[in-house]
Amino acid sequence: MRRLLLALTFLPVPLLAQVAERPIRLVVSGGLQLPTGSFADYHDYGVHADVGLQLNAGGLRLRPELSYSRFGFKELTDIIDGLGGAPGGAARGVRRDAYSDAVTTLLGGFANIELPLGNGRVQPFVLGGVGAVKVESDPTTATASFSDMNASLNLGVGLRLRLGGISGLIEARFNNVPFGDTQTYLKDLRTIPVTFGLVF
Prior knowledge:
The protein is mostly beta strands and 200 residues long. It has one domain (22-199): Porin (Beta Barrel). It contains three helices and ten strands. It has helices at 2-9, 13-20, 37-42, and strands at 24-36, 43-57, 60-73, 78-85, 91-97, 103-116, 122-137, 146-163, 166-177, 189-199. The longest helix has 8 residues, at 2-9. The model is unreliable at 4-19 and 83-91 (pLDDT under 50).
């Protein structure tokens, strides 16, 4: 027993971190979603909730994830219902007012890779990944709801805080879901989710 304790004392810090890290962990998180660009012209701040797994693979962490986000429309905003592109690329459509409880929701699945930067109790990291996002929106009482699925790209940075057997995380990402000019209120669908979570 004494020899074992002596050996652990002289193990390199990175090796100790690998020994303590379980191969599969549960990640539960959520926070605010900040709309940017043209998407922010029509939408208020949103909220999101996520659940995923952390699969440790050497120096990397694989993070498959499901995410749900919800955004309200800004009140008294004129919405242009997309009716197709006009000659020369000009948008054309019918202006209508968004109603007060109109929402846009995003349901996505992502395959992310996280790269840890360091081995301390406070550990910075970078991450990125691709996925698919289903977007549903119902902006006005005079139009049918819009629903479509598209590919998505996300990049981000964050910090992990070791709290005994679990870890806390704080991260910010940039999400891009390209929809083109299909719907004016979904053009340039880019968001910045600010996330707080626990890793069990």
